[in-house]
From TrEMBL, chain A:
GO terms for molecular function: UFM1 conjugating enzyme activity. It comes from the Eukaryota. This is Ubiquitin-fold modifier-conjugating enzyme 1. It comes from Cryptotermes secundus. CDD domains: UBCc_UFC1. Belongs to the ubiquitin-conjugating enzyme family. UFC1 subfamily.
From TrEMBL, chain B:
The gene is UBA5_2. The keyword ATP-binding applies. Keywords: ATP-binding, Metal-binding, Nucleotide-binding, Ubl conjugation pathway, Zinc. This is Ubiquitin-like modifier-activating enzyme 5. Residues 300-326 are annotated as: Disordered. One of its GO terms (molecular function) is ATP binding. Pfam families: ThiF.
Length: 167, 395
């Protein structure tokens, strides 16, 4: 079941219109614009709600995405790199979001650090093709995953707080 | 003095070992013989011919099969085909062998760290050097690799120089299955889908002939009901369980039907399920969905319709078609697990039709005719991708 907070942030993300994958040339460019627009709106929403929790960018073709996400636990900010490829079957299949540095640290992960999503994610995604995009995958997939797994990993001592090195 | 003698002795021994290897190595065999002698690896297979089960067993050497996913099912599948003397195998996987795989068959602890395709190719060539094995160590779902996958199984893939004779999907995820489905619909290649459930107690194989049978995108994924209440299934702290038994059984089903299809004996099952808890094996035939999302599936369906009716009866199986599906009871507890209010959905009637008792769709999808009520939609008019990318980066 999707919790209320997730549901609320989900409904504030604009839905996409173009059903196109990375093999669809011009249509994919259109889809990519929609992806970026939805993502920008979602980050703005998060900022407005004082819950800014990720940044993403892509290669020129929009087929490979990378960025950072962070999670605040006991007033400490834990930061992780995100990466994923857009599969050729997108958007019929969702992107498989990965946090490579956590690979092997939790059982709730597939090889390469791909997060293990709940049984609810795939049906919900399938019912919302092509309206859901990367922003929705973040809100519905990675967000709830971090909320459950990160406190658990901190408690187990498999991840520890790192002082930010940047100026 | 003693030591030099020892050294000489050692050298002598080494040379002797080189001349006659400690382990017998199976040499290549030019032609399959049916002679029943201890040294003939094909005698028991060629006996199928003498017994009248298979007309022309040695034809197996002409066939090329692509195995995608060399895990618990794929590796065993590849070994079975190798021992059967298949002509050529194309192995696709991007994973490495891990000790966590040792609850399954085929791979051994000393292979940990090697790529699965490389490790498999070594073992398979050792078992039967007559089989040509080609390895592809990458994830087929990314744009570049997918194109290479398409090239690999189509143009120059097989021994005959044409496309491969069959693709076997032994992958463990929806994305890869959908990628294989797209490729096979596009190339008009027959393939078998196979799978084992994440709780390890059910599995299935499904034969897909583009345009003639339901493709993998025609309906939501099908699952064999395990009679376990989903709510009592503990998934805390684990993603997936696996058993060598269930995987071995599914691999056996897969290769058995592959042999039947390639060598033209018996009946090929279009869908064969396996519920390990009750030893229940549902079978059925699934028709393609005329409203399938995959445009190539629709194109293949049109081609099948345009064919003269005689040809439409797909080759090797006649008795299986149009078997009436009965649902007089619900002893397997079929129900659609779904969070959506059923009244909201007009479930596509094509999806539910023909599902045999004991098999259900993993989820339902609202019909596309449902009214659109999206007020919050993106509007990209007048903005360029570069601007959007820059805007996102500046946030």
């Amino acid at each position: 079941m999707v919790d209320e907070a997730t549901k609320k942030s989900l409904t504030c993300i604009p839905v996409l219109k173009t059903k196109a994958g990375p093999r669809d040339k011009d249509l994919w460019v259109q889809r990519l614009k929609e992806e970026y627009q939805a993502l920008i709106q979602y980050v703005q929403n998060n900022k407005g709600a004082d819950n800014d929790w990720f940044r993403l960018e892509s290669n020129k073709e929009g087929t490979r995405w990378f960025g950072k996400c962070w999670y605040i636990h006991n007033l400490l900010k834990y930061e992780f790199d995100i990466e994923f490829d857009i599969p050729v079957t997108y958007p019929a299949t969702a992107p498989e979001i990965a946090l490579p540095e956590l690979d092997g640290k939790t059982a709730k992960m597939y090889r390469g650090g791909k997060i293990c999503l709940t049984d609810h994610f795939k049906p919900l995604w399938a019912r919302n093709v092509p309206k859901f995009g990367i922003a929705h995958a973040m809100a519905l997939g990675l967000g709830p995953w971090l909320a459950v797994e990160i406190p658990d990993m901190i408690e187990k001592g498999v991840i520890s707080y790192k002082e930010k090195t940047e100026g | 003095m003693e030591s030099t003698k020892k050294l000489e002795l050692k050298q002598l021994l080494l040379e002797k070992q080189k001349q006659e290897p400690a382990h017998p190595v199976r040499e290549k065999i030019l032609q399959m013989s049916s002679e029943v002698v201890d040294s003939n690896p094909y005698s028991r297979l060629m006996a199928l011919k003498r017994m009248g089960i298979v007309d022309n067993y040695e034809k197996i050497r002409d066939f090329t099969v692509a195995v995608v996913g060399i895990g618990g099912v794929g590796s065993v599948t590849a070994e079975m085909l190798t021992r059967c003397g298949i002509g050529k195998l194309l192995l696709f996987d991007y994973d490495k062998v891990e000790l966590a795989n040792m609850n399954r068959l085929f791979f051994q602890p000393h292979q940990a760290g090697l790529s699965k395709v490389e490790a498999a190719a070594n073992t398979l060539t050792f078992i039967n050097p007559d089989v040509t094995v080609e390895t592809y160590n990458y994830n087929i779902t990314t744009v570049d690799n997918f194109q290479d996958f398409i090239n690999g199984i189509s143009s120059h893939g097989s021994l005959s120089g044409g496309p491969v004779d069959l693709v076997l999907s032994c992958v463990d995820n929806f994305e890869a299955r959908m990628a294989i489905n797209s490729a096979c619909n596009e190339l008009n290649l027959c393939w078998f889908e196979s799978g084992v459930s994440e709780n390890a107690v059910s599995g299935h194989i499904q034969f897909i002939m583009p345009g003639e049978t339901a493709c993998f995108a025609c309906a939501p994924p099908l699952v064999v009901a395990s009679n376990i209440d989903e709510k009592t299934l503990k998934k805390d702290g684990v993603c997936a369980a696996s058993l060598p038994t269930t995987m071995g059984i599914v691999a056996g089903f897969l290769v058995q039907n592959t042999l039947k299809y390639l060598l033209g004996f018996g009946q090929v099952s279009y869908y064969l399920g396996y519920n390990a808890l009750t030893d229940f094996f549902p079978t059925m035939h699934l028709r393609p969905n005329p409203a399938c999302d995959d445009s190539f599936c629709q194109q293949r369906q049109d081609e099948v319709k345009a064919r003269p009716p005689k040809e439409q009866e797909s080759g090797r199986d006649t008795s299986f078609d149009d078997k009436e599906v009965t649902h007089e009871d619900n002893e397997w507890g079929i129900c659609l697990v779904d969070e959506t209010d059923p009244s909201e959905l007009e479930v596509d009637k094509n999806l539910g039709q023909g599902l045999v008792a004991g098999v259900k769709a993993a989820y339902s999808i609202p019909s596309s005719a449902a009214p659109e009520v999206d007020t919050n939609q993106v509007d990209t008019s007048g903005v360029s991708l570069d601007d959007l990318m820059a805007q996102m980066k500046a946030m």
